[in-house]
Design goal:
mainly alpha; 75% helix
Amino acid sequence: MKKFLMIATMAFAGLNASAQNDGCAVNYSIYKEFLNVESYHNAVNMYRQVFNDCPSFSKTVYVDGVKIYKGLIGGTQDKNLINAYVDTIKIIYNQRIANYGEEASVLSRMAYDVQKFRKSDTAYLEAYHIYAKSIALSGEKAEISTVSAYFQLAANLYAKKAISSEELFNALVPNILNIRKNYENGDDKYKEQADKVLSSINKNLSRFNNYQADFDKLFDAKYTLPASIEEVANLSKVMSDVNCEGSKLYAETAEKLYKENPGTEAAIAIARYNKKNQQYDKAAEYYAEALNSETDSKKRSNYLYEAALVANYQKKYTQAIGFAKKSLELNSENAAPYMLIGAIYGSNAGMYASDEFMRREIYWVAADYISKAKRMDSSLEEQANALLKKYTVLFPGKEDAFMHSVKPGDVVTLKLVENETTTARF
């Protein structure tokens, strides 16, 4: 009898499960039809039934739910309603994690949607913490796209003083170190993505003037010189990635690299340390050594630009312009050398002019270079605008130009470090 009751109970449970699955399938089909024609308001009620009653019916249910609520967000301007929809999207993501795992990947999607759709002053900070959890779960295997979004968000939050320099350091440095560790074993696609991310971080950080001293202290407090020469090299690269070559630790890495393998990378590390600490003669010596051995054109371009900065600090302006132009020959997409050349010509016009009118003409050349840098790199806009404001008022006047037979629109060639061609304007 007991055996009969057990079999009957199991059969009844099976019928209930079958009926529930049939109901899930029907409701799923109904909301799908509405979703396919982007009728989100009609889809949502039936969707809720599937979401609540059939949590393990299909992973697609969770993908569809996010699409439906994004569609609803697109149909309203009500901030409170939008935020309620974002909260629902987060619930959908969390239930997907509970039923299907993939937590790190799903959290990355959640962070992106919160950042994009949330209407709140704290939306970026909310997304930042979600990205942080996603990356912590992934460890060294974190997706480059996720890390890139996290880095960008961290820089923006730091700019708004929403996070401290130590929080920015903790967001950037351990993850850049992971990228550097994975770089050599990565495929070409990974290396290309990594290069873009690291370049972006370098440009983002160049906007800030007040973080480097804090970062130097944090490097010394949180890291020690590794035993492995490969790890030393990676740590040195990370400190360069975040423009921090002035710490005691950086000096130690440079010295160890040069002692173990006195090649290009070691020479660059020492050059950068001395540049940061205003030991320009020694920096110039090691930049020259690095350039003698480096064959990669992109790296040579970067080193030539850095050597140009050192020459500028040494007041060797002609040499600085020469280095900057060689840098551009190897990589014409880098805006920084254009800015440097323009600033040198503008600050030292009298040095290259044979008379007062030519001195004023040189400001045309300076403005040309600075304007080009501004067009190429929006992060240079503030600096470029300040220099352009300073130099444009020094252009030749119409009367002086008339006396020198120069009219608006004339093409003018000036013999400076090299022949420079510009257009007359007043």
